[in-house]
């Protein structure tokens, strides 16, 4: 009897090890898939080598926190609680870091003569979106019921929209086009872009019938849903956009009005990221 129980425990342990390794493999796949555009963007290389130390540290802390929360809500290995989510988030960041170094090395961006600070800077900046991709890999690259468990609730909905906005903003914020577009925008066009962003955010999450789309709670009207989720979500989109632009130095030396307009411009793709995040996760 004791031998049978021991064998059963060994089988369970082996199964857990296999599942973890499969989850880790999916995490590396997700890191490459989600962060590949940023690996091949020159502005991201330059930011990694020149970013201010304080902003760099804040960016890494923010990125790790987002990964931990993503792991809690829908990680590459189902988190049983905060400690599990913390460990999964740290693993995801490590996966993102290793993936970033490997891809940048293969692409010839990192060379044998690269300084330690350049290697760490370039890889760590890329590791944040790559790590987010590693966490999301469980849902997108997993199979069966394992890929379907996601915690719900108002805070979860808002956080997932924020994470989607951050991820999409990271894709385009480093480029000069954000500022070029912002400079050419009139106040009327800026307001119109804000309205379009809000409309698309709401349509993507609640209206057009994508797979995984949210359903309004029974008895909850349009305006309550619109204000509590869509408008609140767009507020988070603007916060995320402004933060990413500040981190990358895009707002340095500019006026407050230019900073606001640039945040709205970046908020357009970020709003789409917020809209599809709930569908993806």
Automatic annotation (TrEMBL):
A Pfam short name: DUF2391
Residues that span the membrane, as ranges: 20-41, 53-73, 85-107, 154-173, 193-213, 225-246, 258-280
Keyword terms: Membrane, Transmembrane, Transmembrane helix
Tagged with keyword Membrane: yes
Keyword Transmembrane carried by entry: yes
Entry protein name: Membrane protein
């Amino acid at each position: 009897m004791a031998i049978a129980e021991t064998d059963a425990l060994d089988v369970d342990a082996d199964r857990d090890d296999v599942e973890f390794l499969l989850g880790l493999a999916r995490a590396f796949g997700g890191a490459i898939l989600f962060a590949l555009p940023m690996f091949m963007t020159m502005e991201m290389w330059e930011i990694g080598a020149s970013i201010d130390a304080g902003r760099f540290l804040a960016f890494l802390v923010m990125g790790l926190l987002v990964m931990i929360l993503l792991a809690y809500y829908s990680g590459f290995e189902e988190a049983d609680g905060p400690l599990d989510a913390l460990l999964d988030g740290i693993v995801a960041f490590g996966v993102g870091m290793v993936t970033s170094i490997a891809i940048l090395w293969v692409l010839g961006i990192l060379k044998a003569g690269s300084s330690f600070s350049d290697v760490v800077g370039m890889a760590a900046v890329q590791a944040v979106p790559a790590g987010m991709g590693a966490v999301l890999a469980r849902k997108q690259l997993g199979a069966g019921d394992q890929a379907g468990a996601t915690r719900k609730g108002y805070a979860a909905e808002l956080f997932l929209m924020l994470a989607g906005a951050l991820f999409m903003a990271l894709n385009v914020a480093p480029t000069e086009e954000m500022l070029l577009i912002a400079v050419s925008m009139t106040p009327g066009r800026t307001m119109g872009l804000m309205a379009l962003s809000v409309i698309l955010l709401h349509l993507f999450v609640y209206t057009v019938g994508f797979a995984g789309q949210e359903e309004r709670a029974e008895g909850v009207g349009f305006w309550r849903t619109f204000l509590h989720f869509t408008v609140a979500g767009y507020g988070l989109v603007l916060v995320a956009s402004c933060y990413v632009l500040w981190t990358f130095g895009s707002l340095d030396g500019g006026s407050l009005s230019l900073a606001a307009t640039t945040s709205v411009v970046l908020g357009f793709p970020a709003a789409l990221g917020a809209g599809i995040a709930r569908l993806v996760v």
